[in-house]
Every structure is written in C-alpha cells, then in structure tokens.
C-alpha cells in the first residue's frame, strides 16, 4: 500500500501540535530526550491507547495488538540513533520475528533539514515513513503516527525508544534507545520463554549515543546542511564528535563515535600536559 488512508478531519493544529512539529533542533529538545519522567509509561504500566495505520494497510492498535508480544519502536529517517538501530532491529527480527510482532512507528523528524523537513501534513509524513522503511530495508511493519504525534507523545516523545509489550497490553520492558542490542535481546529472550525480563528497563545510554555519533554525518547528507548548524548551536560537543567521526571512515559507523571520543580526549590531555613539558 503506497497511498495513505484519508485521516479524519481535524481542527487547526493545536499549540501542542505546533510544538511537537518543531522546525529546528534546540538544546531544550536534547535535554528532554535524555531522561524519562516519573509519570511516563514504563514496565508494569498499561500502554496508552492508540490506533495507527500501517504502510501495508493494516491497523496497529492498543486494543488488539495480536496474540504475540510486541516490540514497539519509535523512529525517524533523520535520527542518528534510529540509523544505528536499523541493523540491530533487522537482526533481532530475524531471530525473534516468528514469536514477536515487530512494529516501528514513524514519528516527527528528529533533525529536520532543508532536504527532509518536518512534515506538515499526514500525507507527507506517510511519504517519510515509506522512505524510512526503504532506507532501512525493514522486513516488519511500519506504522504512521498522526501529524501531531498523539501516540508518540503519550508514550513520551523520545527519538528512538522501544517498548516490549505483552499481548494483554502491559509494558514488560522499556529501552531508551533501540540500538541497545544486548538489552533488547535479553528482554525478547525472556518474553518468548514466557518470563518477565530480569530488568524492566535498559541500562544503555552513553554507549548507545556514542554508537549514533558516527551516523550524524550521514544524517546531515540526507537531511541537509542545516542539520549540522542546528546541532552546533544546540549541542556543540555532539557536533564536534560528529565532525571528528568523519576521520574514521574506514571503521563501521557504530565505532566512529568511540574513536572520535578517544581522539578528542587525547587532544585535550596533550593540550594540558605539553605546557608542563616545555
């Protein structure tokens, strides 16, 4: 199915919708992305209500998720962590896809630019979802949130979070970043064996972000140079690591951020030590 369903008529965009569909990445967004609030859904909670169309013409709903556990992932084409998570999700689907329903929900663009701007209509968002599926060669369902991100906001609008949900609609596990392969594999293994995961949430944070840094230059190429300018203004250290990661093009993208960090630390140490040697 290549054409989006006709959305229900809605009133003019609300202030909440306008804020959700930001045009420029800002420091405040980065700060919010770094932590969940105490009231955000987590392990043991029921999922918020949702009813989303998928690109294949089906529905993904909270009331009828199907007989299998569900791995629900949020992501966008311009999110470096989603870029890092693509191979992880394909590998996990190859391993667990017969026992777990995988669904990626296309959200707002994490880093909109002049080439891939923030969608202003549902039809454009549908097109972005098609591109997201094509780019990552996703072998599982891709659903599309509404233009104001009602489902994304109900869960907590993190760029690339993931939730393992049982068939009754209870959250078993929450991952801050979907490129945390070790955490997700452990949770999925427990779920298919009929057990609750040992932990209700992922420990992955710094490592997940470092793996994503090496994908930032590719996001800039895809979305436009404005993305890099916005990251420099919002998060200079992240932008610097992204720029340094270009020096390590022979490494897999997931390893370039760590290499860039090691280089930067070496430069800072040398700068601090050399004056004492002169």
Automatic annotation (TrEMBL):
UniProt keyword Transmembrane helix, yes or no: yes
Metal-binding found in the keyword field: no
Domain of life where this protein originates: Bacteria
InterPro entries attached to this UniProt entry: AhpC/TSA, Thioredoxin-like_sf, Thioredoxin_domain
Signal sequence range: none
Pfam families named in the record: AhpC-TSA
Residue ranges of domain Thioredoxin in the record: 41-193
SUPFAM superfamilies: Thioredoxin-like (SSF52833)
Official protein name in the record: Redoxin domain-containing protein
Organism annotation: Nocardiopsis lambiniae
